[in-house]
């Protein structure tokens, strides 16, 4: 990056990391190292892409310096920031300067690198024990695997507020043995990822679905050049005869193109008119839609097929999720001079039954404990105090 703007942005980012009050500091430091390595070896055609990432990182750094977990909204904001950082990291590690990653197929033809297809939702959370969803998981597995015709197409909506565990629930369903035996392939694709540049959002979504199904990127591009109609047709052909499970995660935009996924192919098909035309019926395929917008989910799968995910009624689960996040590297959480029962009550109050809030609080506390200064070469444990000036019960 042989330009003054690039050097200025990199130095500004590096300087901002010197602040002690930065959330996700380790992630940002790793990104600084990655982008510096890229810059040292970047050809001219990659410089604008790297410069754009530096603009994004500097803006994110400001957010990380001001972000707070005083409220539930602040916790959700920190979660979104971390997902964005992981997305940028994947783009920087990719050989493609635009950040497109080809998924690796597992032995059953499904994508093991699902997070490359969206907002990193499938693997943005490390594989900790999942608490509080046993009943919901078993109920949905029973519905999808046992309570339906083997050849009948089905579509299910999972709705709930941000952080309620919709994506986690789908991640767990995909891993259940009965589901793995019944559905091949199984993929999770984000619907919230914004397309690069001026690319049409519909085209970008179908490309991501095909990519996660294992279609080679050069083939997808050649089909995409022919337009949305060709992409939908290619998706239909790719899924023909298969008992697929596709999770469309985080649907947000109300669009007639997404409505009524049950729609069969008409006699004279205009492929580009509906995403449903790319989903073959009559082979036992299933689509799961997650969304915060219940009305949108109803339009996509039908009101009778929408299942709400509510905050955890057993608030003790939030404490277990918090502790799992703090102890995920195997280090026991035994802070000195702390009444664990009081801390537990505070965590439960702040999380309001939302698993994501508990997870983020645990990761924030873990990071701050690890970043504490170590005097005289001795280990030190930080007292994990949460802010006390939170007046609202979130």
TrEMBL record:
A Gene Ontology biological process in which this protein takes part is: defense response
**Under what name is this protein listed?**
NB-ARC domain-containing protein
Domain NB-ARC as annotated: residue spans: 150-328
Which organism does this sequence originate in?
Answer: Salix dunnii
Please give the residue ranges the record annotates as the region Disordered: 93-117, 374-394
Single GO molecular function: ADP binding
Biased composition of type Polar residues is found at 101-117
Could you list this entry's UniProt keywords, alphabetically sorted.
Answer: Plant defense
Q: Which superkingdom does the taxonomy of this entry point to?
A: Eukaryota
